[in-house]
Design a protein that fits this description.
Elements (H helix, E strand, L loop, with lengths): L7 H18 L25 H21 L3 H24 L3 E3 L5 E3 L10 H41 L9 H9 L18 H24 L3 H21 L12 H24 L6 H9 L1 H17 L1 E2 L2 E2 H10 L5 H25 L7
């Protein structure tokens, strides 16, 4: 990509999203978290519920720049490249849940952790699948065909939820699909039952977030960063939010089910945030502070993986009968402030530690791509 074709605002949005993902994923104590930094319990929406769909949105932004290069390789090469990258991202997510691979075997020994109990869906898995589906749809069906696909995906997902279940944790169709295809032992149990918020059915509407990001990136690439482009993005954002709010009266906004109203709400908000960044960075030339987020945007998946591996290591190692994670919070952070503020300080400093690694890599021009 030429220097003229780069948009720093897109890099900043990607880096901002990764920074927020790390902060909301690593509070010092899950018992003491400010409400905006928690996901909605079920129906509803919090600022934290915008983070993951925004990551998918920026994946779509990147596709707007990458797909023309893919197309020049021919259909067979495009399929192979997209499938390989999608599978690799999925595999990394799966290995993350299997990590550290070895543990007590229940008979006083030590051996491989059983794959039969390893969660299959997950954040990276959904990113890999959504990237793959969106890239192939956009390549073969082009922009107009992808728009039709998006409409059918949202409508079809709504139909499945309404026809074969309800919108409750106990009775939703998404859980039934995952139980049937993957089995209870391969699903997330953090909701108190076998239900995976990154399950297979929700991947269909989540792909629309990627496609929407592609359209936004394509518009910027084709029209440039000017007031007309920003006005179009803003109007599209307002329209998406308005439709989402109307739709939510019959289809609740729900991240864990990834409902169509949730898709349109998050796409709409991203289409409002992006023009603000483009205006400030591209049009007004504001650069102060942008490098901080560029660091996260240059080794995005690696830094996210690093943050998750560090957490796993800290919760599986012990100091004085407590995990290193809990010990650090209780010993270093809890005495500094109120419980919620101390928990937030832990998350922010952990995020900054990950940033330092990204900064070190950037200074040495090491960029780990998947």
């Amino acid at each position: 990509m030429s220097a003229q074709a780069r948009f720093l605002s897109l890099d900043v949005l990607r880096g901002l999203t990764v920074a927020l993902m790390i902060v909301v994923n690593t509070p010092g104590s899950w018992s003491h978290v400010y409400a905006p930094l928690l996901h909605a319990d079920w129906h509803g929406f919090t600022p934290t519920d915008l983070v993951f769909p925004t990551f998918l949105f920026v994946v779509g932004n990147a596709l707007a720049f990458a797909l023309p290069k893919y197309a020049a390789m021919g259909d067979g090469a495009v399929v192979a490249k997209v499938a390989r990258r999608s599978a690799l991202i999925f595999l990394l997510g799966f290995l993350l849940y299997w990590f550290p691979f070895f543990g007590p075997d229940g008979a006083g020994g030590f051996g491989l952790l059983p794959l039969a109990d390893t969660r299959i869906p997950g954040v990276l898995q959904r990113i890999g699948l959504c990237f793959g589906i969106a890239a192939l749809v956009l390549h073969f069906l082009k922009a107009r065909g992808a728009a039709i696909f998006a409409v059918l995906a949202l409508a079809g997902h709504w139909l499945i939820l309404a026809r074969w279940g309800d919108y409750t944790l106990a009775g939703n169709a998404a859980a039934k699909v995952d139980l049937w295809l993957l089995g209870e032992r391969h699903l997330y149990h953090g909701e108190g039952t076998a239900f995976d918020p990154e399950g297979l059915l929700g991947t269909l509407p989540a792909t629309v977030n990627v496609i929407a990001g592609y359209y936004a990136g394509r518009l910027l690439l084709a029209r440039g960063a000017n007031r007309e482009t920003l006005a179009k993005l803003t109007m599209a954002g307002v329209a998406c939010v308005a439709v989402a709010l109307c739709w939510s009266s019959v289809l609740p906004v729900n991240k864990k089910l990834w409902t169509g109203s949730y898709v349109l709400l998050t796409v709409g908000l991203d289409l409002l945030v992006l023009p603000l960044l483009v205006y400030a960075i591209e049009l007004r030339g504001i650069r102060r502070g942008t490098y901080f987020f560029e660091v996260f945007g240059k080794n995005t998946l690696f830094i996210y993986l690093l943050s998750q591996v560090l957490v796993i290591v800290m919760v599986r190692t012990f100091v004085g009968g407590a995990t290193v994670y809990d010990w650090l919070y209780a010993t270093v952070f809890a005495p500094l402030a109120s419980a919620k503020l101390a928990s937030l300080l832990f998350a922010v400093l952990f995020m900054l530690g990950c940033w330092v690694v990204g900064w070190w890599l950037d200074r040495r021009r090491i960029y780990i791509k998947v």
